[in-house]
Design a protein that fits this description.
The protein has 563 residues and is α+β, with helices and mostly antiparallel strands. It is built from 20 helices and eleven strands. Bound molecules: flavin-adenine dinucleotide. Residues 199-203, 207-210, 238-240, 282, 285, 290, 438, 441-442, 444-448, 451 line the site of flavin-adenine dinucleotide.
Length: 563
C-alpha cells in the first residue's frame, strides 16, 4: 500500500505536469461528471423488477417516461433551482388587504407540472386496477430523485382521497378537481380551476404526535353533522404546501376531535379566513413551503361523524406513511446511483475508487440497503392494491420506521463516497442529505411508528399472522433467515418492557421482512450479503462492513446506472 505519494501520480500525473504548456495553471482531470441524462427508472433494476413482480407491468412504459424526464439534466437543474430560490410569503397586497399567497420559483411549477401531469397524485383513483398503487410508487420514486419537495403536495393530494370518501357530498364536489391531470397554480376559487391540490393540517404548537391535544375549535353554523358547515378557530404549527386549494384539518367539535375539509375560498368566492403567519425556515425540503396558519372562524365542512376525526384522517395518514417509505427509498437510490457513478470515474492511489476493495464494500453495502428498501417498499405498495388490510396495517409502520431511519445514515455514506466534493452544494449531495431526516419525522416520528406497531399487534392479532405468513413465504430457502425469523417470533412473545424495547423489535421485524423478500426476489449476491450482515453477522449498522467474501462486483454492477 502506498501512502504519501500515490502510484497514480507516478503513472500519469507527473508526466502531465511536466508537459504542461505555459498558460492555464492546471488542467482539470480526474473529476467525475455529474449523473444526468439517464433513465432514473429504467436504470434501476430492482425497481423495474419490482414493478413487474408486484402487478404493474402494464405501467412500465409510463414509468420509463417519468424516469426519462426525471433524469434529464434540465429537470435535475429545476430541482436545484427550486431549492436555491425558496418560496416566499405575501401576507398582504399593497393596499393592506390580506392575501396569504405563497410565491414559488418557476422551477417548482415545472416540477409540479411533471408530477401532476403523470398522475402521481391520482393514478390509483383515476385508474383503479391491480398494480395501480405499485405503478404510482415506482413513478414517485423516480420523480423524487429529481426533487423531493414536490412530493409533499403530490402525496397529500393522493392520500386525501380515501379520507374524503367518508363524505359523499364532498367527493362529488372535490374529487374530480383533485384527480385532474392539469396543474393549475393560480390561487382562485376551486370551481374556476382546471385542477386542485389538497393539504393537511393536524399539528399544533402543543402537540403533533399527540393530536388529541389539539385546541382548534369547530362551531357548527347550521346545526352541524356529517357534511355540514362549521367555523374553525385556532392555529396549526405546521401546515405544508399552504398554496393548496383545500386542507383536511383536525379540530375539536362538541362531539370530540373531528376531521374537516377547509378550502382556501368560501362558497361565495371570498378568501377564507385562513391566515398564513409565516413560512418555516427549514433544514431541507426548502423548495416546498411549510407554514404556520391561523384560522379565524374559517369556513369548513365536516367529514364523517363528529368525534371520528382520527379514524377519518388516518385513512390519509396511512397513504402518506407509504409515501414516506417510498420517498426514503428514492433518496437511497439517488445516493447509491450517484456514489457508484462518481467512484467509477474518480481515481485515487492508482486505481478507480470503484476498484478499491474497501470502497467496493461501501458501495455494495449501500446497494444492498437500497435494494432491501426497494423490494419492501414496492411490496408494501401492493398491499394498498390488494385486499390485504392486515399485512398493510402492520407492514406500513414497520417499514416506515426502518426505511426512514436508514435513509439519513445511507445518505451520509453516499455523500462521503464523493470525498470533499460531496460536501459541496453543486454535487447535489448536501440537498439529498438535508432532505433525508424529514420522512422519519413526518406522519409520525420513529417512536410513534414503533408504538403504532405495538398497538396494531395488540388490537389486531391477525396482522401479526399476516406479517409472519409473508415472512414465511421464504421458509426453508435460507437457514439464516429461518433462524432470524424464529428469533423475531420468540421476541414478540416476550412482553416484558415491550415499550422500551419497541425500536429494536420493530427493526428486527423489518429486517426479517426485507430478508424474506430479498431471498425470494432479490439478486442472489444481494440476498446473501443481506443475510450475512443484517441477519447473521455481528452487524454494527455501519456501511462497508459486509463480509470480505461478498460478491461485491455483482452487486455494484447490478446497481450501476448506465448513462
Ligand atoms: C417540514 C415539516 C413539514 C410538516 N408539515 C406538516 C403538515 O403539513 N401538516 C401537519 O399536520 N404536520 C406537519 N408537520 C408536523 C409533523 O407531522 C410533526 O412534527 C410530527 O408528527 C411530530 O410531532 P411534533 O413536532 O409535535 O413532535 P412531538 O409530538 O413533540 O414529538 C417529539 C419527539 O417525541 C417522540 N414521542 C412522541 N410521543 C412519544 C411517546 N409516547 N413515547 C416516546 N416518544 C414519543 C416523537 O417520536 C418525537 O421524536 C411537518 C413537520 C415538518 C418538520
Amino acid at each position: 500500500m502506498t501512502f504519501g505519494r500515490p502510484s497514480v501520480w507516478e503513472d500519469g500525473v507527473m508526466a502531465r505536469i511536466e508537459q504542461r504548456p505555459a498558460g492555464p495553471t492546471h488542467e482539470v482531470f480526474n473529476q467525475a461528471a455529474a449523473l444526468e441524462n439517464y433513465n432514473v427508472f429504467g436504470e434501476d433494476r430492482p425497481l423495474t423488477e419490482a414493478l413487474r413482480r408486484e402487478g404493474a407491468g402494464w405501467a412500465e412504459d409510463r414509468a420509463l417516461q417519468v424516469g426519462e424526464v426525471a433524469g434529464r439534466a434540465r429537470t435535475l437543474r429545476w430541482g436545484a433551482e427550486a431549492n436555491e430560490n425558496a418560496p416566499t410569503l405575501r401576507t398582504h397586497d399593497r393596499l393592506g388587504n390580506r392575501i396569504d399567497e405563497v410565491e414559488f420559483h418557476p422551477a417548482w411549477h415545472e416540477l409540479m407540472r411533471i408530477g401532476i401531469g403523470h398522475g402521481l397524485h391520482a393514478l390509483p383513483w383515476r385508474e383503479p386496477q391491480p398494480g395501480a398503487h405499485v405503478a404510482r410508487a415506482a413513478m414517485f420514486i423516480a420523480l423524487s430523485q429529481a426533487e423531493a419537495g414536490v412530493g409533499c403536495p403530490i402525496s397529500m393530494t393522493y392520500s386525501a382521497i380515501p379520507a374524503l370518501r367518508a363524505q359523499p357530498q364532498l367527493v362529488q364536489e372535490w374529487e374530480s378537481r383533485f384527480l385532474s391531470l392539469e396543474y393549475d397554480e393560480r390561487l382562485v376559487p376551486a370551481p374556476d380551476k382546471t385542477g386542485a391540490l389538497c393539504g393537511m393540517a393536524m399539528t399544533e404548537k402543543q402537540g403533533g404526535s399527540d393530536v388529541r391535544a389539539n385546541t382548534t375549535a369547530a362551531r357548527p353554523v347550521n346545526g352541524g353533522g356529517p357534511g355540514a358547515e362549521y367555523e374553525l378557530t385556532g392555529h396549526k404549527w405546521f401546515c405544508s404546501a399552504p398554496m393548496c386549494d383545500a386542507f383536511l384539518v383536525l379540530a375539536q367539535a362538541d362531539g370530540g376531535l373531528s376531521c374537516f375539509l377547509l378550502p382556501r375560498f368560501t362558497p361565495d368566492g371570498d378568501r377564507n379566513r385562513f391566515h398564513i403567519q409565516r413560512l418555516k425556515d427549514k433544514l431541507g425540503n426548502r423548495s416546498n413551503a411549510s407554514s404556520e396558519v391561523e384560522f379565524r372562524a374559517a369556513w369548513a365542512r365536516l367529514i364523517g361523524e363528529e368525534g371520528r376525526g382520527v379514524p377519518t384522517i388516518i385513512e390519509m395518514v396511512n397513504h402518506t406513511r407509504l409515501d414516506c417509505t417510498i420517498g426514503s427509498t428514492a433518496g437511497m437510490r439517488a445516493g447509491v446511483a450517484n456514489a457508484i457513478h462518481h467512484c467509477a470515474q474518480r481515481s485515487a492511489f492508482g486505481k478507480r475508487l470503484i476498484e478499491q476493495p474497501l470502497m467496493r464494500n461501501v458501495l455494495a453495502d449501500l446497494a444492498v440497503e437500497s435494494e432491501a428498501a426497494t423490494v419492501s417498499a414496492m411490496r408494501l405498495a401492493r398491499t394498498y392494491d390488494e385486499d390485504a388490510p392486515e399485512l398493510r396495517r402492520l407492514a406500513t409502520p414497520v417499514l416506515k420506521y426502518w426505511t426512514c431511519k436508514r435513509g439519513p445514515a445511507h445518505t451520509v455514506e453516499a455523500l462521503e463516497c464523493f470525498g470533499g466534493n460531496g460536501y459541496v452544494e453543486e454535487s447535489g449531495m448536501p440537498r439529498l442529505f438535508r432532505e433525508s431526516p424529514l420522512a422519519s419525522i413526518w406522519e409520525g416520528s420513529g417512536n410513534v411508528q414503533c408504538l403504532d406497531v405495538l398497538r396494531a399487534m395488540a388490537r389486531n392479532p391477525a396482522s401479526v399472522d399476516a406479517y409472519f405468513a409473508e415472512v414465511d413465504e421464504a421458509a426453508d430457502a435460507e437457514p439464516r433467515l429461518d433462524s432470524y425469523a424464529a428469533s423475531v417470533r420468540d421476541e414478540l412473545t416476550d412482553l416484558e418492557q415491550i415499550e422500551a424495547r419497541a425500536r429494536r423489535v420493530v427493526e428486527r421485524m423489518a429486517l426479517a421482512l426485507q430478508g424474506s423478500l430479498l431471498v425470494r426476489y432479490g439478486d442472489p449476491a444481494v440476498a446473501d450479503a443481506f443475510c450475512a450482515s443484517r441477519l447473521a453477522g455481528e452487524w454494527s449498522g455501519a456501511f462497508g462492513t459486509l463480509p470480505a467474501g461478498t460478491d461485491f462486483g455483482a452487486i455494484i454492477e447490478r446497481h450501476a446506472p448506465h448513462v
